[in-house]
């Protein structure tokens, strides 16, 4: 059912029905939580964060991206969580929250370093240097 709702989210987006897309995303996330399906929940949260970004709602997008990263950590998906934090750092910078951007960019850089991904580590450190 959560997968069907995720498809509905995408369909609503294609037709420009943003509020309906967000409603379907909330329903899908509730089902994922009930089923303890962290993988699908992370997918729904990611999609929700992207919707909020497109709508210019940085506060909600940041909250969703933080939840995505936390869920990815729970799943043991360290590189995915690092990439999410890298996106989050950029969003924080755009919003003017340099302290939060620095914090999450450092977390992303440390995770990339631990994984041996030097290119991504360098990019995360670039955000820190900004």
- Mean pLDDT comes to 90
| Low confidence ranges | none
Gap between N and C termini, in Å? Answer: 43 Å
**Helical element count?**
7
Tertiary shape: globular
Question: Beta-sheet strand percentage?
Answer: under 5%
Q: In total, how many beta strands? A: 0
Structural class: mainly alpha
Can you put this structure into words, describing what you see?
The protein has helices at 2-14, 18-35, 38-54, 58-75, 78-95, 98-115, 118-129. α3 (38-54) runs antiparallel to α4 (58-75). With 130 residues, the protein is mainly α. The model has no long low-confidence stretch (mean pLDDT 90).
List the defining traits of the structure above.
single chain; 0% strand
Helix and strand topology:
Layout: H1 2-14, H2 18-35, H3 38-54, H4 58-75, H5 78-95, H6 98-115, H7 118-129
Helix pairs in contact: 1-2, 1-3, 2-3, 3-4, 4-5, 5-6, 5-7, 6-7
Short characterization:
The chain is an all-alpha fold and 130 residues long. It has helices at 2-14, 18-35, 38-54, 58-75, 78-95, 98-115, 118-129.
């Amino acid at each position: 059912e959560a997968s069907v709702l995720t498809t509905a989210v995408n369909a609503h987006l294609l037709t420009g029905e943003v509020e309906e897309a967000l409603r379907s995303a909330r329903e899908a996330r509730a089902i994922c939580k009930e089923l303890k399906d962290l993988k699908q929940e992370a997918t729904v949260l990611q999609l929700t964060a992207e919707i909020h970004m497109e709508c210019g709602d940085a506060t909600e997008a940041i909250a969703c991206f933080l939840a995505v990263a936390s869920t990815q950590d729970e799943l043991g998906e360290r590189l995915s969580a690092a990439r999410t934090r890298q996106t989050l750092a950029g969003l924080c910078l755009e919003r003017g929250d340099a302290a939060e951007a620095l914090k999450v960019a450092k977390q992303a850089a440390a995770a990339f370093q631990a994984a041996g991904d030097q290119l991504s580590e360098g990019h995360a450190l670039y955000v820190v240097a900004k």
